[in-house]
Design goal:
about 425 residues, Alpha-Beta Plaits, 17 helices, Rossmann fold, about 45% helix, 4-stranded antiparallel beta sheet
Length: about 425
Amino acid sequence: MSAPNRDPSGACANNPRILAANLVNDVLLDGVSLTQSLANLRRLAPDGLAAAQSLAYGALRNAGRLRLYLDLLCDRPLKPLALSGHLLVGLHELEAGETPAYAVVNEAVAGAAARYPQARGFVNAVLRNYQRRRAELEAAATLDPVARWNLPLWWLERLQTQYPDDWEAIAAAQDRHPPMTLRVNRRRGSVCEYLAKLTQAGIEARQNGDASLTLLRPVAVGMLPGFFDGLVSVQDLGAQFAAPCLGGAAGMRVLDACAAPGGKTGHLLELHDLDLVALDSDADRLTRVRENLDRLGLSATLRVGDAGDPEAWWDGRAFDRILLDAPCTASGVVRRHPDGKWLKRPEDLQHMARQQRRLMDALWPLLKPAGTMLYATCSLFHEENADQVAAFLARHPDASSEAVAGTRAGQLLPSWEMDGFFYARFLKA
């Protein structure tokens, strides 16, 4: 939950900049995920949440650089610390340059002063000083690796070790705003037909896969023709590898483990008429799977349960295919979830690796002979990917791995058109 001194339920609850400052503070000061903070705010139903979310995401995406600016601009420790959220959001807006600078400064000062009246002059001075010293601050940021790449130092060092030839391209890709990519429901029409609908609606897009289109500029889903009628879904191009990679045929019994929020579930059912079980340990998140399937006009058996404890939910009938979209550090999708790079710690890798091993070993006996299990993560780190594959094969002599076309030994690196994902196909003897 948000800290008490940042309770958004007061008189300023609908001010987007105050809400954004609260969200940034929740992540950087309290270690609360944006998912949880946004859920708390939605329960209060404040106006201006969409604008606040955009501001917070921008500030967190660039927090490595913005926090360096703040350190250089302040000649004393911040008191109270909660002022940092207001200042980081203000610095983000000034750097982005999409709003007149005078308006940014005025709004930041007013937002901070609404709770901390004595801070009015200080906030104004810091932001005005940034405007005067911008060139100097930007030069300083190029010399600091955390500020330059907007990634924690341990994260950068791991990328440099594991991807010595690609780490700069990876870091640069993760510092960009993510593209908005669509998956066309080919049960309802072709990619060409949907591209024509977008053109008619004045939305520019380009095809970049058998069923995918990337918009030149993101739009609200309500603006997408036929979205609520199930013609199309929003799904990253890298995530769209999963369903074709798993393979299958009509009538197969398929398990989608860790299914929420249901993007891959829907894609699997768009490709084939399957007897599909969508499993997730979180009943609330499983509701989103149902909503997505209802929108697409598709059906599956939904079950709440821990994929690592099949005795609690499995009916004893083996599966032809299993998709394990395993919990991970999400290191490949931080431009969409920028809080992740500031919340994760090196020790989280080992915790995730243990959880992944537990799930893989628990699900493998549920697969029929000659069946396929697809192990997927949205991670870049070898501990969760290539190392897991090697260890799994060593533990299970009846398993073999098969190359995944279009990847680098299973790894998809983040680029301008997709996030980072990993896929491993295991075949059962």
